Amino acid sequence: MTALLGHDEPWREFRAAMAGSRMHHAWLLTGPTGVGKAQFALAAAAERVAAPGVQQPEPNQHPDILILTRLPASTDDEKKREDGKPYATKRSISVDQVRAMQRRLTTRPTLGANRAIVIDSVDDLEKSAVNALLKSLEEPPAGSMFLLVSHRPGGLLPTVRSRCRPLRFQPLSDDDVAHVVRREAPEAKHEAVAGAIAAAKGSPGAALAFLANDLAAIRRELLGIVDQGDPDFSRRGALAMAIGARPDRERLLACVELARNICAESAAKAPRQRQAGLIEAHSRLTRFGAEIPYANFDPGLAVVEIGGLLAAAAAPKEGR
């Protein structure tokens, strides 16, 4: 398992709870996308289920760690996953997956006294799956612990949040992000790595997505729109060319995340009269990004939406 960096405070809190007399049965792991919440969940699950003197498999192969995530979208994608290639996933985690997990919880753990359930992410549960999960959170089987990864906890049902102990994750330092990028993408050029770190805002996952999706040109166009506006739509045209004619969902999501980070960074430095527009653009980009994995969308219109939101928040204001 890849070594984790940072997150000393979540580890301190989790391990203090493990050492106490009563371990909470459900944890809600929240924070920015790509900072390592899912990796933490797997590592924490491994610590929870480990039995003294018993050889432990890797977390993703452990019989007492149940992992729920979006499944491959088709049989072809299943084959790609088996071959270690990129693959498309279904839009959500289904109620059938949750019910299969619940059936496992009626049996005894295999290697010890405890079992852990990792859901990555709980944001992806379809509505009926959320309702099914609530039953387990309300009446957890003895020895079972849930680790729910969430990038958008505000969108979860209050009944889910109220049954979980929150564990908040902060962005990593630029040095830690650089360490992860150099470890995972050693072939990347120095200039590309520097751009990825600047764009990632403490998220190693975002930095790696920046490199994988070749976002340097896209970042340049987005910054140009925010800084100078786009009254004649020329920058939006350049943005569309940089993104490409047929971007996949992963590339579009990486663009939305990049645009959100640019809005947040610009708002932090902007004069007061500009901040409201940038904050509004950030909020709308967040909602738009949440829709992309599930909705049928036209890539061209998605690019127009991203560029339009930034242009509306740009300085100087268009038309002035």
UniProtKB/TrEMBL annotation:
Native organism: Croceicoccus naphthovorans
UniProt-listed InterPro entries: DNA_Rep/Repair_Clamp_Loader (IPR050238), P-loop_NTPase (IPR027417)
Top-level taxon of origin: Bacteria
Pfam families for the chain: DNA_pol3_delta2
One CC-aspect GO term: DNA polymerase III complex
GO process annotations (BP): DNA-templated DNA replication
Protein's name in the database: DNA polymerase III subunit delta
